[in-house]
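Honest question from a wet-lab person: if I give you the sequences of every part of a complex, can you actually get the arrangement of the whole thing, not just the pieces? Trying it with mine:
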Amino acid sequence: MPETLLGVRYRYAEEDGTAIPVALPLLPVPPAEVLLGEAAALPGDLVAGLRDAALIADLDRILELTGLLEARAPAMAQELRRLAEGFAYPGILALLERGTAP
Amino acid sequence: MTAPRVNRAADILAVDDTPANLLILIATLNAKGHRVRPVLDGRLALEVARRTPPELILLDIRMPGMDGFEVCAHLKEDPLLAEIPVIFISSSPDASDKVQAFAAGGVDYVTKPFHVDEVIARVEAHLKIRRLQVALDQYNRGLQEMVRTQVREISESQIATIFALAKLSESRDDETGHHIVRVQRYFVALARRLCEDGVVPEAARDGFLENIFQACALHDIGKVGIPDSILLKPGELTPGELEAMKRHTLIGAETLAAVLEGYPGNAFVRMGVEVTRSHHERWDGSGYPDGLSGEAIPLAARIVMLADQYDALRNKRPYKGEFDAERTYAILTEGDGRSDPRHVDPRVLAAFKAIRTEFDAIHEELREPLPGGRPASWTEQVLEQAQW
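Yes, you can. This is the full assembly:
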């Protein structure tokens, strides 16, 4: 046990009333206009697949589909990968939503 | 039974608000071929699980927002998710947390920082248990269905045989040979209406009514013991012949009562005895063989009495011609000196008045020989009508 072996213990955010921020990987966020431009050009079935995968937290599928974007939408792929590696599924859904909004 | 594949890769939902813990679980379980869906908070985990239920859930206890105990409680409330095994993971070594985890429905408890081999061992043990449970449930359902099918087949074949024997006895005095089928159809129509009117108690409607319906085919089985000289005599019977004719109720009931001694728990035969004995009893007590009146007459016999009377009026008998629908209705509802509405349970008579056109339609439909002409098809046809 950490308490007995190291003299330390886990401390949880709710114990002192603070929320834990989602720790996203420290990658640069691509400019919004670049993301929007690339997102608007994404094939519908790919967007639908990413959306479905995000709704069920299917990380493997998100990363697989993101891999297909590398060549045609590198900024979008980078941002999706950053969000996926931080398990930020609502962020992925919001990004896809913004990209496909009329 | 095919052996369940208990070692195949699983879909596991891992819920922990610490990304580093999720990364360890992903690496550990992916290495064993399992797919891990990592989620950082309890509320999102519930949404994700409802969309695509996982095979197993690894659930942190202390998380901001909804904690693991609350998540587990919601899982157990949802029929779709309740059976998914939940393994709690927590840094708390407190016995009270472990007790609470099991009380909440968890199947196991792993203490953080976890040892990867322990996590794998526990996950795979619970996956195996769960898969064996699912396989056992499927096997049991298959067995139950097999038993149901066999019981149904046996029941239907027995009913068809009984029906054929009743029909054989009936064929001696029924020109078209469809009297039993018609009486059953009238019976079904009346019984359904009496259910709608609340006369038949809710609790008595399923198996009980089905047994009565089958048993009503036996009502005249005692005629097999009546001599042809009386049964087929054209014109009025003498008082002595009438007394002999009345004995068909007792002959039938005594025959079935002997059967009942061998099968005392058989509801169908028990009701057969009641209907056979009492279908000539009258509401006002003027019937035979026991002179019962009112509610003392079994309900099924009261229904059969009217159905039988309607059929006798509508069809030709050795002692009378056939009457049309209007005349038959008038005789049953107003009387003709021989029939009297006071003979009939008022609620059964009210049901008949309400569905008289249905009776007329059944009579018209079954006036000619039935298609197929074999007992099983008659039974199937009548059974189809009996879906209350």
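Two things worth pointing out. The two ends of chain B are 37 Å apart (CA to CA). Chain B is about 55% helix and 5% strand.
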